[in-house]
Design a protein that fits this description.
The protein has six helices and two strands; from the N terminus they run H-E-H-H-H-E-H-H. By secondary structure, it is mainly alpha-helical.
């Protein structure tokens, strides 16, 4: 078991807070580079981030350095390419859904 039976509840909560999907930081950084709107519209950023993250495999880590230590430069480049593609597709998807909603309201 990852979390020992003898740990206190606050220790467990702290451990849970330290676990995250490695792709989250990559997606947000890519989205900020790809979309000016994402810098000013947090709802839009959250929507696009969720769509992009759901198109990527989860890679949970406690510390980002754990991932970078075990990946080759080629694997890191492949991950960056996957993130760029997922963000591009997510931007297009969210924007198309907004246009459809706007058209339906008219």
């Amino acid at each position: 078991m990852l979390l020992g039976a003898g740990r206190h509840r606050h220790d467990i909560a702290s451990a849970q807070d330290s676990v995250h999907n490695y792709y989250e930081h990559l997606v947000i950084a890519q989205l900020k580079r790809a979309s000016e709107r994402a810098l000013n519209d947090m709802e839009f950023m959250a929507d696009v981030s969720c769509v992009a993250l759901n198109r990527l495999p989860p890679r949970y880590v406690r510390h980002d350095v754990d991932m970078t230590f075990f990946l080759s430069p080629t694997e890191m480049d492949e991950m960056d390419d996957k993130v760029a593609h997922a963000v591009k597709d997510a931007l297009e998807y969210v924007e198309s859904r907004e246009q459809k909603t706007d058209a339906d309201e008219e």
